[in-house]
Each structure stands twice: as structure tokens, then as C-alpha cells.
Amino acid sequence: MIDKIKSLKHFVNENVVDKKFVVKNNKFELLIDNILVAEAKFNIETEDEFFNEKYVSIYDLETFEQFRGKGYAKLLLEEIFNYVKNTLKLNIITLIVYKDNYKALNLYFNSGFEIFMEYEDSYSLVKKL
């Protein structure tokens, strides 16, 4: 079953007809065939006690319900990584995720995020590009 899902996700990712990545109003958007399928809000943070350089924090990452399970969140993250690294010229991305959000944790860990801080019910994750 897992191989079937991976195969389907690979098929969807390779056969998307019209994929657009849009950045506006501190939001990343992924549109497939001009339909908004996933989005994430973001802030550009200044250096602080954790990082001695600017970095991007993302939050409210969401794939809309009717589009879930098709690999769109992974596509969105890949676009975000590329944009942050190549356009913003920044090297760090952070986010916070609830400990019981297993699907999101799996996505983030498979995308290269690591636990930076642990809280009672959530983790702060970091990815260095």
C-alpha cells in the first residue's frame, strides 16, 4: 500500500500540468492548474539569540482538504527551500509543529528539518539550506 501511495505521489508530481509558485503578502502559495492547493505564511526574522543571521520562519502551512495526500505540501516545501536559498539568499528556515501531528512531522523530517527546541506539546524545527 505504501509503495502504491509513493508511486501515485511520484506520478502526480511528474505529471502536474501547470504548477505555479507565488510569493505575496508574506505568503507562499502553490497553484496547480490555477487552483490554490497549498500555502504557508512566513516572516523574515532578524538575527537573534538563536541565529546570528536573518532567517525565515514559516507557519500555518496547509494543503487544502480536497488536495491532501497528493504530495503538494512536499512540492510547496521544495519551492520554499529554493526561493529562500536562491532569491532571499538566506540559509535557515524554522517552523513549529504539534507533537501529535504525525503526518506533518513525517513530511518535515523527510524534508530535512531537525528538532531545534522541544516544548510541552510542540517542536521547533530548523532546516539549514
Would you give an account of this structure?
The chain is an alpha+beta fold and 129 residues long. It has a single domain (2-128), classed as Gcn5-related N-acetyltransferase (GNAT) (Aminopeptidase, 3-Layer(aba) Sandwich). Helix content is 29%, strand content 40%. It has helices spanning 2-14, 72-86, 102-110; strands at 19-24, 27-32, 35-45, 55-63, 92-98, 114-118, 122-128. The longest helix is centred in the middle third of the chain and has 15 residues, at 72-86. The chain is globular. The relative contact order is 0.14.
Per CATH, what is the topology? Aminopeptidase
Radius of gyration over C-alpha positions, nearest whole angstrom: 15 Å
Distance between the termini: 32 Å
Number of domains: 1
Q: How much helicity do the residues have?
A: 25-40%
SSE series: HEEEEHEHEE
**In the CATH classification, which architecture applies?**
3-Layer(aba) Sandwich
Determine the mean pLDDT.
Answer: 91
- By secondary-structure content and strand pairing, the structural class works out as alpha+beta
Main-sheet strand order equals: 1-2-3-4-5-7-6
Strand-residue proportion: 35-45%
Main pleated-sheet profile: 7 strands, mixed
CATH domain class name: Alpha Beta
* Approximate shape: globular
Annotated CATH homologous superfamily: Gcn5-related N-acetyltransferase (GNAT)
Count of extended strands: 7
Which regions have little confidence, pLDDT < 50, spanning 5+ residues? 4-9
The number of helical elements comes to 3
